Amino acid sequence: MEWLVETVKAAPYLSFAVGFSSVMYLFDDVFLHSRESATTSVKTIPAPLQGIFDQEHFDKGCAYKKDRMAFQFWNSLYNQAWTIGSLCMGFLPWMWGISGSLIETMGLSATTHPISHAISFIFISSAFSVLTQLPWDLYSTFKIEERHGFNRQTVGFFFKDMMKQFLLNCVLSSLLVAGVIRVMDWAGDAFYLWTWLVVFVFSLFIVTIYPAYIAPLFDRFVKLPEGELRDEINALASKEKFPLSEIYVMEGSRRSAHSNAYFFGLFTKRIVLFDTLLEKGLLPENLFQDDAAEQETDTNTKSRQGCNIQQALGVLTHEIGHWYHSHVLQAFVIQQSYILLSFYLFSQLIKNDAMFADFGFPTEKPALIGLLLALGYVLSPLNTAFGLLMTFLSQHNEYQADAFAISRNRADDLSAALVRLSTDNSSFPIHDWLYSALHHSHPTLLQRLAVLSKSK
User: Quick one: which of 62, 60, 58 has its CA closest to 41?
Assistant: First the structure.
């Protein structure tokens, strides 16, 4: 560990941050992106999908992927130019100065009120980020998603959602940063242990309040009505001893035609099904209808098939497989361990005058700025390596959850569901192997179908 600390301390920080960011951009957003984009030149349905994937959906998926990849290329180019430009032109110290001037207009000293200064910086920098990213988000939602039949939002709904996300992120970030700064002042040299503990408790707090207080701010949830689907899900949970407390349907169609399913909860679990996941007839037509929804929901719809009951059970068996193998707990433990390591390395850098001076802070060392510099730039190679580790682990866990579904004789149901979800979401089934290995949290459709078919 000591060699890593000394290596980091000796680095030319700004040059390193710009250089590493540029290398990763060229490798990831140019080289790998070009490999993945080239897959859209394939016009023939792969043999394993012949007969179950029609040409119309294949062509739609190809067109959607072309648009998404082109958007991703230009957006990443903009982000890279902005990253290098802002670092080299001293945007961070300028923004820090603006946030300090703001609280001084309120009668507070930036020097003696570091938490207020940090909160001011969070709100100003977040507002700037939202505004500069806004044209890209608008184009993505109302051009690309609209063109391919996925967008269900009105402009009013979009901006209301954006404002709620902005305020929630700022409030939660401010609470966390205030706690971290307070603990750093109190704990002395061993602050990394206590700041990690603050983040750990805060993470548990968010997980606890999310279903009851945060998720309903953005989406509407109703209990799955009584009927065959609910009975089958309860029977599946009971058979697997899955601690199911409730089953909800989320009005995903209010925002997008994309579909999904997930579960959440620390001890007892709640299953959430997107209404777009299920085929027509499984849910009442008026499940979410009311006057307010009719005013806000875009009338544009996209024809979809959705999953039948057995296919939905195949998907949920896969999700229960994640619970059975403790994948969520595993990921949480690994992430918390990495956060602890990051805070330790940060504790070694916070006293390093050269790091602050390189990034435009020659006379002060604000705790929040130190966190941003250390965790966002100086330790970026470590972040990249950790991200790859989590990607590989996620892919492994997806195969393991599929194997669980196979062991419960749900291979055919899961296979059919994966194909149906792929066509409904206009997912192009062909990917570059290297891009997929380094980017995708899930194995590709062809990879999963190959494993599922071997069980027959």
Answer: 62
Q: Partners of 246 in the beta sheet?
A: 270
Query: Closest Cα to residue 391, out of 451, 447, 429, 441?
Result: 441
CA separation for the pair 411, 404 (Å, rounded): 9
CB 222 within 8 A of CB 248: yes
Determine whether 319 is an active site residue: yes
Strand partners, 144: none
> In angstroms, rounded to a whole number, what is the distance separating the alpha carbons of residues 71 and 75?
6
H or E element in which residue 288 lies? none
Tokens of 26: 């060229």
Q: pTM for the complete prediction?
A: 0.89
Q: How far apart are CA 263 and CA 402, in angstroms?
A: 16
pLDDT per position as a tens digit, 287-310 = 776 544 444 444 444 456 889 999
Catalytic member of 145, 319, 364, 398:
319
Query: Tokens 């890593």 label which residue?
Result: 4
Residue 239's Cβ-count burial label (10 Å; 0-12, 13-18, 19+) is exposed
Query: Are the C-beta atoms of residues 232 and 207 closer than 8 Å to each other?
Result: no
Closest by Cα among 340, 454, 332, 446 to 393? 332
Task: Note the pLDDT tens digit of each residue in 217-261.
Answer: 998 999 999 999 999 999 999 999 999 999 999 988 888 888 888
Q: How many CB atoms lie within 10 A of CB 266?
A: 10
Which CB contacts under 8 angstroms, 24+ apart, belong to 332-340?
332/203, 334/389, 334/390, 334/393, 335/390, 336/196, 336/199, 336/200, 336/203, 338/386, 339/196, 339/199, 339/200, 340/192, 340/193, 340/196
How many other C-beta atoms are found inside a 10 Å radius of the C-beta of residue 77? Answer: 13
